[in-house]
Each structure stands twice: as structure tokens, then as C-alpha cells.
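Q: what sequence does this backbone want?
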């Protein structure tokens, strides 16, 4: 076994802990069946299931309905349109899908549930009725689709993702399902993900809340609402999808674009576990661990997919019950079980290879006023700025051809870092978004805003 395989292989104690958590979830959640998978380092390292039918446990190839995890797939399609220059996230919907009652909402607001739209459609519960009852967008939105002022707060909206599905169809000129298959499912090898169930697949069940009996849930084609919750998938396919959401794939979306999806675009709602919402992805904090993913449910099914970028671990849990088993919570716990029991090994340190491009003159300690900062150059070619021995703003910067650096993260994202030189060519100070960073605290020879007291540093007396 090579070193990488040894790193990926889970310890027997970890595997038992995963099996135990799934067993408890199925028993206490009174689910007909549950199936799960854990991904680490880009590989599925564990699969497990429990079932009420002895000897017929599902495996990673059995389809379950995944509900709102579908929204993340739809968001990927929209981000592809953005990356191709066919739309901007700041565009109002009306610019591409004219004539709806929600035309002033922007694409970004729809992706992040900041559009103020109603949570559900008018009329009967859309998840349990045929899509033929809502043949037009007007039927999905109703006469007054707004519940809040667009942009004022996060308010989860299923109709909002129906609008995004219609946006994809308008710009591609093909049905949402066809575009999804051609542009996401086939390139990523997700052959067991589909809009309608394909054998082998689980049946959806409602379990009586006060008796150990159950009945089948109806299976409906959601029509226009498909982009919000139609898909069926397997744990193996969703594990591959989770890996894509961690690393990107240039055939579908770049690593930078999927990182943007995982970045908060909406603030967290008070009292909820969510740490905000990205672009088609829920965000959650479990202690110090930051997770991104999505939960899902439709009558007869619950689902959860969560990933931790820092730990390079993801987990998927699918069950065929309407309620009872908290699939999303369990998926997050599986990530924690693996990450806590077997923290990842750091990558081997390697030196920066292109020595002629190393900007050593900007590396080392700097001072923003009296705050000690340090600039480091990573082997990735990025500059890393952060405080010395204290909490504070951190950021990464990419080199530009003109000798400046552009912020990639944190407070300084998009801002320009510039080394300002003296007449002899040496670096006087760094300029970053009007902040002056000097080699000495309040360096009298640098253009410190407000000037420096001519008496300099001194004690009392």
C-alpha cells in the first residue's frame, strides 16, 4: 500500500464509529433505510447502510430523492452562464427572463435567497402535487410573490430557484434537465443522477409519528419546480459532486468559482445553525469547523451533503422517510467523526520553485500604525498577509503583470497591494486600500496619513 492509500484508509475505530452513528440514526429516526458515504482526499473511504429489511441493505448505487440539494446543481448551471459572460450576478432577472412579477430581483439575490420572495408557491403544497398544476411562472409566483424587500434579509425561497431554472432554459434554449445532463452530470460522471427515478431506487415512505407503521408517499413530477428539488441521486454520485464542490473541475466550473459558491452571500438567520448562505450552498459552523453543503427533503425522503474544506472531508446521508431521521445533521456529524479522529496530514513543505520571481523585498514584518503584520510568500506564488501573534485581518494576494498584487480573500478581496519605491528603487512602504504599511511603526520617512509627531516615540515624564 502506498503512502497516499495509507493516509486515506480509515482506522477500524473510525469505521466502527461511522457504522454506529448510522445505526443509531436509522433506529431512532425510524427510517425504512439509510445509506451514507464519506469522502476524504477525493476518494470514497467509507460506505454504510442500515435497513428495516434484513439482508436487503442499500448500497452506494441505489437512488434516493435528494430534494433541495438539487438547488446546488442549478446554481452550478447559473455560475457557468456567469463565467461565460452571458449574465452578471448583479443583473435583474427581467433582463433575461422578462415579464415575471419578480423581474427586479437580481441573479445573486435569487442564488442566495435574498430576493424577498415567498418561501412556497400559492395553492396546494407543491412537493406533493403534480407540476401540471403550475404550468406557468405566474402560477409559481402568484399575484404578489414578495414577502420582504429584495436584499433586506435572507428568506429561503423555492420559487426563486424555479426562476433560476427558467433562466437557464432561456439562455441555453433547452430544458433545464437537458442542460444539467450535458453540462454537469456527464462531465462529472454522475450517471446515476436523474430527474426521474431509475432502478435500483428506494421508495419513499411516511412513518406514523406515534405507531411503527408506514405508508408510501406519492411520487410527483414537479414540473417547473424541478430546478428547486426534482433530482434523484446516489451516495456515490453525490460524493463525486462533493469533491467537485471542493476542488472544481475546469470542464464544469473552476476552483475559484466553486469557492465563490461556498462564500457567504447572505447573513446567518438568528437562532439557526446555518452560518449564512452562499450561492446555492448552505453554510454551517460546528464549533470551529466550517461546513458547506445542502440539506434536502421531499415527501418520502431526506438528504444531507456537507463538506469541510479545511479537513478535505465530505459526507452524504440519504434516507427514505418523510421525517424523523435528521439526514443533514447526521452527514455533518460523519464529517466530524472522521476529521476529529483522523486529522489530515499537512502537505509536505516545498520551496518556491521560480526563484527569479520571488518578491523578497516585500516579505517579512510590516506595521500598519502600531499593528505588527507579516507578509509571506507561499510556494503557491501568493502573498499571504496577516497579523503577528494576534487576531486580525488576513488575506491572500495574486501577482499581476504590472508588479502589483490583487486581494483574493477577506477584507482585502479585490483590493490592490502596491509596493511604493524611493528614488533609488528600494521599497519605501506598501499601499493597500489607502492603508500605509511601513517597516517601522509610524516610520517618519514614510507618508503616514496624518503625519508623525516630530518628537517621536517617548515615555512619560
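A:
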Amino acid at each position: 500500500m502506498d503512502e497516499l492509500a495509507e493516509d486515506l484508509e480509515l482506522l477500524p475505530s473510525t469505521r466502527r464509529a461511522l457504522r454506529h452513528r448510522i445505526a443509531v440514526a436509522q433506529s431512532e429516526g425510524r427510517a425504512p433505510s439509510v445509506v451514507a458515504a464519506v469522502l476524504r482526499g477525493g476518494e470514497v473511504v467509507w460506505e454504510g447502510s442500515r435497513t428495516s429489511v434484513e439482508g436487503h441493505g442499500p448500497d452506494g448505487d441505489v437512488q434516493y430523492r435528494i430534494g433541495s440539494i438539487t438547488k446546488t446543481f442549478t446554481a452550478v448551471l447559473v455560475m457557468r452562464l456567469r463565467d461565460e459572460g452571458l449574465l452578471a450576478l448583479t443583473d435583474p432577472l427581467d433582463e433575461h427572463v422578462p415579464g415575471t412579477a419578480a423581474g427586479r430581483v437580481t441573479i445573486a439575490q435569487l442564488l442566495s435567497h435574498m430576493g424577498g420572495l415567498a418561501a412556497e408557491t400559492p395553492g396546494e403544497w407543491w412537493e406533493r402535487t403534480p407540476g401540471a398544476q403550475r404550468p406557468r411562472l405566474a402560477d409559481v409566483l402568484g399575484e404578489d410573490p414578495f414577502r420582504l424587500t429584495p436584499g433586506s434579509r435572507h428568506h429561503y425561497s423555492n420559487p426563486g430557484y424555479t426562476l433560476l431554472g427558467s433562466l437557464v432554459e432561456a439562455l441555453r434554449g433547452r430544458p433545464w434537465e437537458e442542460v444539467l445532463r450535458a453540462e454537469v452530470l456527464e462531465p462529472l460522471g454522475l450517471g446515476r443522477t436523474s430527474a426521474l427515478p431509475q432502478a435500483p431506487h428506494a421508495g419513499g415512505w411516511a412513518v406514523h409519528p406515534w405507531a411503527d407503521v408506514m405508508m408510501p408517499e406519492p411520487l410527483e413530477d414537479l414540473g417547473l419546480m424541478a430546478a428547486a428539488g426534482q433530482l434523484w441521486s446516489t451516495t456515490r454520485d453525490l460524493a463525486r459532486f462533493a469533491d467537485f464542490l471542493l476542488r472544481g473541475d475546469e470542464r464544469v466550473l473552476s476552483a475559484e468559482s466553486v469557492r465563490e459558491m461556498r462564500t457567504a452571500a447572505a447573513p446567518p438567520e438568528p437562532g439557526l445553525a446555518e452560518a449564512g448562505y452562499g450561492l446555492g450552498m448552505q453554510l454551517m459552523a460546528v464549533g470551529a469547523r466550517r461546513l458547506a453543503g445542502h440539506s434536502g427533503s421531499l415527501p418520502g425522503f431526506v438528504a444531507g451533503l456537507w463538506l469541510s474544506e479545511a479537513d478535505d472531508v465530505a459526507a452524504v446521508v440519504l434516507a427514505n422517510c418523510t421525517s424523523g431521521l435528521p439526514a443533514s445533521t447526521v452527514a455533518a456529524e460523519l464529517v466530524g467523526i472522521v476529521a476529529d479522529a483522523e486529522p489530515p496530514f499537512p502537505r509536505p513543505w516545498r520551496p518556491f520553485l521560480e526563484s527569479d520571481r520571488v518578491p523578497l523585498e516585500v516579505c517579512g514584518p510590516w506595521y500598519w500604525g502600531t499593528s505588527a503584520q507579516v507578509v509571506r510568500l507561499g510556494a503557491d506564488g501568493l502573498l499571504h498577509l496577516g497579523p503577528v501573534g494576534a487576531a486580525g485581518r488576513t488575506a491572500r494576494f495574486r501577482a499581476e503583470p504590472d508588479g502589483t498584487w490583487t486581494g483574493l480573500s477577506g477584507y482585502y478581496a479585490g483590493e490592490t497591494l502596491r509596493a511604493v519605491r524611493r528614488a533609488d528603487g528600494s521599497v519605501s512602504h506598501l499601499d493597500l486600500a489607502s492603508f500605509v504599511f511601513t517597516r517601522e511603526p509610524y516610520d517618519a520617512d514614510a507618508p503616514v496619513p496624518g503625519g508623525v509627531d516630530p518628537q517621536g516615540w517617548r515615555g512619560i515624564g
